[in-house]
Design a protein that fits this description.
about 230 residues, alpha/beta, Rossmann fold, 2 domains, 6-stranded parallel beta sheet, 6 strands, binds magnesium ion
Length: about 230
């Protein structure tokens, strides 16, 4: 039997991207010029961590200071992010491993289009095919890609036009794995899993394993693939 064709679906916030550090950088830039808006951003961010809902700094700045100001802040943010490493430990190793495996992969991230694209740019991940989704349960979205024969046709934006036998979802939110269909498995990445959607009472399907970081995902996958 030929090897199953794998496709890795990777989360951005708190799995690969240092969301807190990115947010702190953005807030610091706004604080320098518009402390009034910085207060609103902090409130929004706190609320977002508590509830697990995404919130848009872009929309907030645009509303209070206009689009030209938004562009100014974003340019400053990207210039400073270029001097930092906004990727979590193991993320660089993980993407290099995916390239070496010659498998399909993409980022599936929940939130607003503009904000998520800015984070990708800040993290140096603009080259990775990305879908910005409004599905809170990514398992449900993955199920929607499954064909009657059990294979998956992933979203067009992933630019991967082959039938996929096995999807591996990697995410820091336990709730992302709800409704994950047969033929898909996952890794719950715990090191920075902080929001309400990762509380212990959110059940994990038994096809989902726990890993501290993306480095551990690489180790676990190498082990699993060797077992065949
Ligand atoms: Mg996340």
């Amino acid at each position: 039997m030929s090897k199953p064709n794998r496709f890795y679906v990777v989360d951005l916030d708190r799995t690969t991207f240092r969301t807190k550090e990115g947010g702190d950088l953005m807030t610091a830039i706004i604080e320098e010029e518009r402390p009034d808006i910085a207060d609103l951003v902090r409130e929004g961010a706190e609320h977002s961590v508590k509830t697990g809902n995404s919130f848009s700094i872009h929309a907030l700045m645009s509303q209070y200071a206009g689009e030209a100001y938004v562009r100014h802040v974003e340019n400053t943010y990207l210039a400073r992010a270029a001097q930092m490493d906004l990727l979590h430990d193991g993320a660089r190793e993980f993407f290099a491993w995916l390239d070496a495996q010659k498998v399909g992969y993409g980022i599936l991230t929940y939130g607003g289009e503009k904000g998520q694209r800015l984070k990708l740019q800040a993290a140096g991940l603009s080259g990775v095919p990305t879908v910005v989704t409004s599905f809170k349960h990514k398992g449900e979205q993955i199920a929607s890609w499954q064909q009657p024969d059990g294979t998956f046709t992933v979203a067009d934006e992933f630019r991967y036009h082959q039938p996929v036998d096995e999807i591996i979802l990697i995410d820091d939110r336990r709730s992302s794995f709800m409704h994950l269909p047969g033929g898909a498995l996952g890794y719950w990445v715990t090191a920075h899993a902080t929001d309400a959607y990762s509380s212990a009472d959110v059940p994990l399907p038994d096809t989902v394993r726990t890993a501290a970081t993306l480095h551990d995902v690489v180790q676990a996958e190498n082990h699993r693939l060797k077992q065949g």
